[in-house]
Design brief:
- By secondary structure, the chain is of the alpha+beta class.
- Helices cover 27% and strands 33% of the residues.
- Helix 2 packs across helix 4 (115-130).
């Protein structure tokens, strides 16, 4: 039996930040990002393994047994830079001039006023990296 999975290689995310979803479609900020491959996922969500003493398991001498603990090491900047392919509808005022933010690099170089937006984009991308079922409609 042949199994085919259909997915879009480029996806769109419309953030809620600053009332963005309530704006008309033409005025909305839109974030475009690439669908992560397995190798991109491995690169962006590396697993770290540590041995830690057990809190409730001991050997015959009363020494705590060692247990393996797995954690993910996430880098917000790396994830956004690797996955975001374009930004539409976002501009900032810098030194009295309007500046269009069109790339991940420009977004991450902007002022901390956009940190909440960056966090929302990161949370969305993180959920995409961790999902097993793809829902491409926000």
């Amino acid at each position: 039996m042949k199994v085919a999975v259909s997915t879009n290689l480029t996806r769109e995310f419309i953030p809620e930040w600053n009332g963005n979803k309530e704006l008309s479609e033409v005025e909305q900020i839109k974030i475009y990002y690439k669908a992560p491959s397995i190798s991109i996922k491995e690169d962006l969500s590396p697993m770290k393994f540590d041995l830690i003493p057990s809190k409730d398991k001991y050997d015959e001498k009363g020494n705590p047994l060692m247990e393996q603990k797995m954690t993910y090491v996430l880098d917000r900047t790396k994830i956004i830079n690797k996955l975001v392919t374009g930004i539409v509808g976002l501009s900032i005022e810098a030194d009295g001039k309007e500046v269009q933010i069109k790339t991940a690099s420009q977004l991450l170089s902007a002022g901390v006023e956009l940190d909440e937006l960056v966090s929302e984009i990161f949370a969305h991308l993180q959920s995409v990296l961790n999902s097993k079922v793809v829902d491409e409609k926000n």
